[in-house]
Amino acid sequence: MRIGGFSIDNFTYKMGENGEHHLEKVEDEKDIGVVIDEKLTFEKHMSEKINKANGIMGLIRRTFEYMDKEIFSLIFESLVRPHVEYANQVWAPSLRKHVEALENGLRRASKQVPGLRDLSYPERLKQLNMPTLAYRRIRGDIIEVFKIMSEDCGYDQSVCKDLLTPSQVTWTRGHRYKLEQQRPRLDLRNKIQSGERLVLSIDTRACQGEDNVVRYLEHVQAVITVNGSRRGDLNINMTSPAGTKSILLSRRPRDDDAHVGFDKWPFMTSHSWGEDPRGPWVLEVGFRGPEPQHGVLKEWTLMLHGTQSAPYIDQVVRDYQSKLAMSKKEELEEELDEAVERSLKSILSKNN
């Protein structure tokens, strides 16, 4: 078996003193109960285990006329689950289709318990006091990592040091099993595909505690670097902490650019005028158009423009549902909270 995408398909291997034994080419091989394929997808292994588990559940269904919650949990955990969990630290799925295929076994089986068929899958598991198979795999990975790092579990520590890097952060609470998280060279999460929305957020305190603090907004700039296979189909929205949604960029049918994109482009909105800028700002990026497109958002920053004092002191509220009314209400509530805090501190200091 050849691991990887090698292009030399006709090459043959021989064994023996004179090379009289030709090694047969295979696409997969079973080793200690795990089917390993040449692309390391473990798809055949998962398929075999799913079929095995489904076969056992079919036999159980034909054998038992009635199963309550306790009997089902006992039977599934002892006869079915071991088949889809054996050595899962080696072959654990990374694709959603494989995760769902494995989970479907428990999803269908849990409907056999009387009174649970009409409940949702999470509710059925809650009634059965059982976790998902995905959770069990994560738990197994954590246990295996603990064994690798522990000197009492038989692993060669010289090899373990090359696999796992202990965390160098010592100024926070924790334990000696903390690990350094490896960062990818590219942030694949910032890829944009048609039919999907890339959602990012920045949680800001608006320079609170500094001289340039912004308490009341005038306008906001989102400085964005993004490109796409068709720039005119890009659509960008931003939502303020107060819930105000602004359209920063809408579809432009005549913009066919596929190379330049937007390089540190300041998209501006004044829809959040008078609001408190503190909190999470949410950016949504996607494509809108008849053809499928793709792109990458490389970076974005937030620039807040405003004042420390209210810009509408002399304005009269005429509509109590308006943003002016809500902003003044927030201002009064904050002043009241500060006054109460000062009073409490004064009372406590006198008592002491």
What's this entry about, in short?
The protein is of the alpha+beta class and 352 residues long. It contains eight helices and twelve strands.
Give a verbal description of the structure.
With 352 residues, this protein is of the alpha+beta class. It folds into 2 domains: 25-182, no CATH class; 188-307, Sandwich (Jelly Rolls). Helix content is 33%, strand content 22%. The protein contains 8 helices and 12 strands. It has helices spanning 43-63, 69-85, 88-91, 96-109, 121-128, 133-149, 157-163, 323-351, and strands at 14-15, 21-22, 28-31, 34-37, 191-193, 198-204, 216-228, 234-239, 245-249, 262-269, 279-287, 294-307. The chain has a 4-stranded antiparallel beta sheet, with no helix packed on it. Strands 6-11-8-9 form a 4-stranded antiparallel beta sheet, with no helix packed on it. Strands 1-2 form a two-stranded antiparallel ribbon. A hairpin with a 5-residue loop joins strand 8 (234-239) and strand 9. Helix 1 runs antiparallel to helix 2 and helix 1 (43-63) runs parallel beside helix 4 (96-109). The longest helix has 29 residues, at 323-351. The protein is extended and about 90 Å long.
Query: Residue share in helices?
Result: 25-40%
Mean pLDDT across the residues is 84
The portion of residues forming beta strands comes to: 15-25%
- When the domains are counted, the total is 2
Low-confidence stretches: none
Biggest sheet character? 4 strands, antiparallel
The total of helices stands at 8
